[in-house]
Design a protein that fits this description.
The chain is an alpha+beta fold. The protein has five helices and two strands, in the order H-E-E-H-H-H-H.
Length: 134
């Protein structure tokens, strides 16, 4: 059956290591409202539902926690940059700054407050940039 499905989604055999296709149904309850979302995945993993589930949860756990921090600290969702490569370039810059701010351990505040403080205080900015270099 996988070979028949593989022929449909990859007729030119460009994904020669494709070993499994999976479907995840995700149930979310928010403010009393239940939503069901179905997502499909192709994978190089052997046909193993448990391993696929673990991989998907791991991916989305990292994605959601990083996205939440970037949105809270850098207002990423409010960014209106849309032209050419600019969105990807600014996303990379936000990730770099996030990593730099995380390396600075003397302040117990979050990325948003560290970013704001660096904008107001040149000495703190110099300190953060010094941490990034070392």
């Amino acid at each position: 059956m996988l070979s028949e499905i593989k022929e449909l989604i990859d007729p030119d055999n460009q994904w020669e290591k494709l070993h499994s296709i999976g479907m995840i149904e995700s149930v979310r309850i928010l403010k009393g409202k239940t939503t069901l979302e179905t997502r499909y995945y192709i994978s190089i993993l052997p046909n193993n539902g448990q391993k696929l589930g673990e991989s998907v949860r791991s991916h989305w756990g990292i994605e959601n926690s990083l996205h939440w921090v970037l949105d809270l600290g850098f207002r990423e969702d409010d960014c209106r940059i849309r032209k050419d490569n600019a969105p990807q370039n600014f996303a990379i810059l936000r990730h770099i700054w996030f990593n730099i701010l995380n390396k600075e351990k003397t302040s117990k505040t979050g990325a948003k407050n560290k970013r704001l403080r660096a904008g107001w205080d040149d000495d703190y900015l110099t300190k953060i940039l010094g941490v990034a270099v070392n």
